[in-house]
Amino acid sequence: MKILKRYKWFLISLFVLMILSFFSKSILTKTIDTASSNILQMLSVLPPVMILLGLVDVWVPREQLMKYMGNNSGIIGILLAILIGSVAAGPMYAAFPFTAVLIKKGAKFSNIIIFMNAWCLTKISTLLFEISALGYKFTLVRLLIDIPGVLIMSYLVNMFMSKDSINELYNKYN
Q1: Per-domain residue ranges for the chain?
Q2: What's the pLDDT tens digit per position in 139-171?
Q3: How many of the other CB atoms lie within 10 Å of CB of 2?
Q4: What is the pTM of this model?
Q5: Sign of the CA dihedral with 72 first, then 108, 115, and 150 last
Q6: Where on the phi/psi map is residue 162: left (φ > 0), alpha (ψ -120 to 50), or beta?
Q7: Which residues contact 46 (CB under 8 A, 6 or more apart)?
Q8: In terms of Cα–Cα distance, which of 106, 117, 104 is closest to 147?
Q9: Dihedral angle computed from the Cα positions of residues 88, 115, 109 and 100, in that order, rounded to the nearest 10 degrees
């Protein structure tokens, strides 16, 4: 019964898809093609990410990560979170396993949110494409707006989440 509850939305979506496929076979075909493509993309991205995470988990001691990204890290933790998120490669779902390692190692919650936002907004590979497509002025203005937004967002999320929720999250990974 727990499995049904866990996959409830997937099963409902599958049921709706089956019903829709009676009216239009192209919906079923497109859905299967899209799902297959996404699964193949994930399988090409996640193994290298998992290998790197395993290395980070083994090579970076918890005490060292807490020193630089923990509760008393200050501006160094913020800059390191932005830097790690900015040099990252891959889609957003590749950030989630890394986020779990940061939680496990005791990084400050707001630094984790900064890292995740930086992964989305300040990735160097994306910035290079954006500069070539939209120009450096646009990219610079966007960054000048986004970076303070990332910081504000991280502290708002940290402020609005209850301490119990944050502690539960950290306890789940330790």
Answers
A1: 1-44, 60-173
A2: 999 999 999 999 999 999 989 999 999 999 899
A3: 6
A4: 0.78
A5: negative
A6: beta
A7: 94, 97
A8: 117
A9: -20
